[in-house]
Amino acid sequence: MAGVSPGADTEIDYQWYKNDTLLDGETNSSLIITDVSAADNGSYVCKATNNAGTAHSDPAVLKAIVLIGHWPFDGNYNDVVNGNTGTGIGSPVFVEGIAGQAVKFNGLGDQAATLPTAAMGTDTNFTLMFWELQPENAPANNQYMCASGSPSGHERLYMWAWRNPDYDCDYYGNLYVNYGGNWGAIPSLNQYARGQWHFHALTFNAETMNWHWYIDGIDKGYRTLTSFPGLDTLIHLGNRTNMQRPFTGAIDDFRLYNHELPREAIAAIYAEISGKSVCLDPISGDLNDDCKVNLEDIALLALDWLACNKVPETACSE
Description:
Elements: E1 13-18, E2 21-22, E3 42-50, E4 53-56, E5 60-62, E6 67-71, E7 87-89, E8 93-96, E9 101-106, E10 112-116, E11 126-133, E12 141-148, E13 157-162, E14 172-176, E15 183-187, E16 197-205, E17 210-215, E18 218-224, E19 234-237, E20 248-257, H1 263-274, H2 295-303
Antiparallel strand pairs: 1-2, 1-3, 3-4, 3-5, 6-20, 7-10, 8-9, 9-20, 10-19, 11-16, 11-20, 12-13, 12-19, 13-14, 14-15, 16-17, 17-18
């Protein structure tokens, strides 16, 4: 981090502070933090003093993007980042996943998994993500892949594998606004083939109150909330707390970040595991929809070179 100088020519004494608390031993003109973790997040200020007086640097705010929970489901419910071991309810089985093994739920209402995580308040950005595979014969109303919060009333968050004919979609999700009334709902707006792995990422920004749902690396839309109580201390997979929303299928590689990941990072994680590319934005001139402009697009353009539909036809020769 940058330092500060009060001027004059005499020796300068430096002292760094984090969130107005003195940092012992940090008396250089610059501050270097290695192996950054969530514990290092905060506002840093340097005070420089000599016989000319005292000067303070402008605050430097550090917000590290940290993976705070990662459950690969490789034969267990271990969190390989912070040791927050999950629990299987009703003996879900471990099967082949998209990255190692995955946990599989039978959809009969007697199975679920819980993942403990630190409570995240209303002022906390976060991203959660996981992979999901439904069998081709899964029920149309396949219920909760992921949920957080109380089962009485409504969850604070749920992501539903719901084949909803009203929206022509396979997924439907909500963040509960205030436990008192309103939801911020996003239907996926597309149907996705069952019998294939799909990647889900949900991001929340506490400053804008926007939440986004990404499917297979593509942002499927967002909603703006008026308030949000934050995630609960337990995340439920394959069901809700009262076991009344059973999911049929497998879930793999659940991750939780303390930050709203940018879309480029989400697309990169999807591409790394799936081996497929993601087109983030359409490109003007991309006529064959392969997310790049090359000779194939020029060839398609040449097929209609000098084509004219004007009336009268004589106008085409002008």
